[in-house]
Amino acid sequence: MRGSAHARWAVCVAGAALLATACGGGTGVIGGPGTLTSSWGDPQNPLEPANTNEVQGGKVLDMIFRGLKKYDPRTGKAQNWLARSIDTDDSRHFTVRIKDGWTFSNGEKVTARSFVDAWNYGASLKNNQKNAYFFGYIDGYDKIHPAGGRQSADTLAGLRVVDDHTFTVRLNQTFSSFPDTLGYAAFAPLPRAFFTDHAAWVSRPVGNGPYRIRSYAKGSAMSLEKWDAYPGPDRARNQGVSLLVYTDSNTAYTDVLAGNLDLVDDVPATQLKNVATDLDGRYINTPAGILQTLAFPYYDPKWNTAGARKVRTGLSMAINRAQITKTLFRGTRTPATDWTSPVLGKEGGFQAGLCGHACDYDPVRAKRLIEEGGGIPGGRLKITYNADTGSHKQWVDAVCNSINNALGNGKACVGNPIGTFADFRNQISQHKMPGPFRAGWQMDYPLIQNFLQPLYYTNASSNDGKWSDKRFDRLVDRANAETDAAKAVPLFQQAEGVVRDNMAAIPLWYQNGSAGYSARLSQVALNPFSVPVYNEIKVG
Fold it and tell me: How confident is the model at residue 61, as a pLDDT?
């Protein structure tokens, strides 16, 4: 999900009128007994499922929605949830049968139409949803979301409601892994209220998950309460969650220590040396499907040349990943050697060492390659990042120092901070990056396809740098067309080889999920996406 969006925020929110108590009271209780408080950041967009592709909004969608599939919070495996069955004979035509007894929190029944209408809305060009691309496999997408001009249809030809509990999906190509993508939030069902009074729904989204939104003050906090009538087996074990907006992760961490906050779900790098002692074991550090990279603006012709390819490879070899991860991140990051994640495992497509020597620290060869490629475009490397979390400045400075040392030029690389994550993402979306920029990827679902296609396929939803390679696209198309998932993986790996050969993005490190929590909480865990499993947390 959520390309380039893996910033964490934190700053104590004073005076949040919607909540019973503001930060700083020393009790850790905000919003009532049995309610936990957690650090958070404002979503980039309104919380429409098909328009949310970053972590902070995704956290909320994970609490208020349930889809056809749900990813196991421990293994990441896709499990049927609202789906009673998803059947196919050819990996192109699917019959989806949904379970009876599910409703939205406003009392509306969840039916086949709830999914079909939501998917048609998400795919429609006129609705301008960031995740529209995820519906691109469904027949008729080219009519409802054409690459150019106006749409010529209002609905996807490949979707058909059979009855209240059955609908069919016809894809425009075979895609054996399609059912496993359906746990992603973009495929969530929507109630009729979303369409009949959209403005009201956006102001207070209604879903079918274990929590309901009580209130939201942008820039301040969101209050979610347990939905007592939730019909699913994963009911909330607490009374609610209060998400508090922070702009400094160190402040969130110290608030946990002071008892003014229950959970910080990204321990800042500056605190890692003390965290085990500070929190007396209430610290989580687990592998997650997250990769951090440096992406490039290929819409800038200077970065889209054969020489620039050498420069990118040289820059990769100028970065001392081992030293940076050891010094700054203390076991919460591991130097990346491919463009996926170890959580996929070998069978899932992870290839340790795929990057080869290009990801090894070799300052002599790095300098030579950069010189052979014509030097850094523009004469100076500016790495853009959002400055509203303390950890990014540290590693960007460390990366620049490593590059500067390799080149023997203390001014060759500098950080280019953007004040807030929202502004950072907006500038990326508007293609205003002056050079490489911080790009984090948190998997939407545990498939190698998800680490490659959304980021590098021509005009894909999270291809922020606009990289394009016809051979890569063809290999991805072939992989998706395989009816046997086991045969698809090697083709995706070949496509990843194209990414490597072009150094389309520089892989930096695999990121663990980390969290610290107060003594009020128990049963705290992070899922493979690094998001707290809020519904399982117990308070008191």
Answer: 97
State the pLDDT at residue 30.
52
- Neighbouring C-beta atoms of residue 197, cutoff 10 Å: 11
Whole-number CA gyration radius for the chain: 23
At 6 the pLDDT is 36
> Is residue 94 a contact partner of residue 179, using CB atoms and an 8 Å limit?
yes
Strand 437-442 vs strand 283-295: parallel, antiparallel, or unpaired? antiparallel
Quick one: pLDDT at residue 390? 61
Give 254's contacts (C-beta < 8 A, 6+ positions apart): none
Q: Whole-angstrom Cα distance, residue 513 to residue 438? A: 18
Distance CA 5, CA 397 (A): 20
Q: What is the structure's pLDDT at 493?
A: 98
Strand partners of residue 416: 384
Cα separation, 127 vs 156, whole angstroms: 14
Tokens representing 40 are: 């958070």
Q: How far apart are CA 412 and CA 407, in angstroms?
A: 8
Closest CA to 37 of 250, 242, 254, 226: 242
Contact between 37 and 472 under an 8 Å Cβ cutoff? The reply is no
- List the beta bridge partners of residue 414: 382
Q: What is the pLDDT of residue 49?
A: 96
* Type of residue numbered 484: D
Alpha-carbon span 428 to 431, nearest angstrom: 5
Q: What is the pTM of this model?
A: 0.81
* Secondary element (H or E) of residue 290: strand 283-295
Q: How far, in Å, are 56, 111, 130, 190 from residue 47 at the CA level? A: 10, 21, 11, 12
Beta-bridged to residue 88, according to DSSP, are 94
Q: Which of 411, 434, 473, 11 is nearest to 250 (CA)?
A: 11
Note the pLDDT of residue 484. 84
385 class by beta-carbon count within 10 Å (0-12 exposed, 13-18 middle, 19+ buried): buried
| pLDDT value at residue 4 | 37
Strands (E), 120-230: 159-163, 166-170, 211-217, 221-226
243 with 41: CB under 8 angstroms?
Answer: no
Strand 381-386, strand 413-418: pairing: parallel
Are 208 and 123 contacting, i.e. CB atoms less than 8 angstroms apart?
A: no
Instruction: Give CA angle at 257 (253, 260), nearest 5°.
Output: 85
Dihedral sign from CA coordinates of 387, 389, 391, 392:
negative
CA nearest 181: which of 104, 277, 78?
A: 78
381: which strand partners? 413
What is each CA distance from 355 to 439, 467, 473, in whole angstroms? 18, 18, 20
Q: Which residues of the chain have pLDDT under 70?
A: 1-31, 389-390
